[in-house]
Each structure stands twice: as C-alpha cells, then as structure tokens.
C-alpha cells in the first residue's frame, strides 16, 4: 500500500503522511505471531470455564501467539443446548482450527468436544500442546 502525501481533498498533508508512514514502518517490525487454537472445556460450569478460557487466551497472547477460542465466540449467538446447533458449532470449530498452526489444550479434563478437536488436529498433523497447572507444558498422558 502506498501512502499519499495528499489528503482526500488533494491538499498536502505532511502530518497525516508522517503518522501513517510511522504506523506502516512499525507494522513491518512486528514479529510473526502464529495462530493457536485454544482447546478447553466449555460445558459444565460455563461461567468458570469461560473465565478460564479468557485466561488461556491471555497466556497465549503473552506467549507471542494469536489465540483463537471459538467457545468464547460461538455461544454468543448459538445455543450449546440445541443438538443441531452444537453439531454445527463443532463443525465450525474444526474448520477454524484447521487454520491454526497449533492446538493448545488446557484443563484437567478432556470433554467430548475437546476429544474430537484433539483427534482431528492429530489426524491433520497439527501440533498439539498440553498445559497443566500454572501453564506449564505437560505430556499428553499427564
């Protein structure tokens, strides 16, 4: 994208030009941030699980990644208690998860939905990492 020294009306605008040039220069310095799919429980204690999912996203962000947590987005407009919508949500999850470099699994239990996501990620050859207490990476068996 080329930054123009003139505004939309055709007048010379050095202030806007300099600001936009700096923004473009800084954006090029940004390091690569991989997309990571956040896989954690939603059902059960929904309120607590949503709180934890937000914390998991913050951890991923602080680790230099871009977190994707579909279970924070989809319940905003889909009903998890409706079997047809739940199946559609899982389908959407798997499509979006396919765009991510890794799947990060959190929590001390693997829900049915999480198990499906993990199996699909492994089948696709996506990296799967497991995190335990205090966000320490653990083995799959832990």
From TrEMBL:
The domain of life for this entry's organism is Bacteria
Q: Which residues form the DUF7768 domain?
A: 34-131
Quote the protein name from its UniProt record: DUF7768 domain-containing protein
Q: Which organism is it from?
A: Schinkia azotoformans MEV2011
């Amino acid at each position: 994208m080329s930054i123009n020294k003139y505004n939309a009306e055709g007048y010379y605008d050095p202030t806007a030009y300099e600001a936009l040039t700096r923004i473009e220069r800084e954006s090029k310095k940004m390091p690569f941030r991989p997309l990571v799919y956040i896989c954690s429980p939603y059902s059960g204690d929904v309120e607590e699980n949503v709180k934890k999912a937000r914390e998991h996203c913050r951890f991923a962000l602080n680790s230099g990644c871009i977190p994707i947590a579909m279970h924070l987005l989809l319940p905003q407009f889909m009903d998890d208690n409706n079997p047809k919508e739940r199946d559609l949500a899982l389908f959407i999850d798997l499509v979006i998860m396919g765009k991510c470099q890794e799947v990060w699994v959190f929590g001390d239990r693997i829900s049915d939905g999480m198990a499906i996501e993990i199996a699909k990620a492994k089948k696709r050859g996506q990296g799967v990492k497991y995190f335990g207490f205090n966000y320490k990476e653990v083995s799959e068996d832990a």
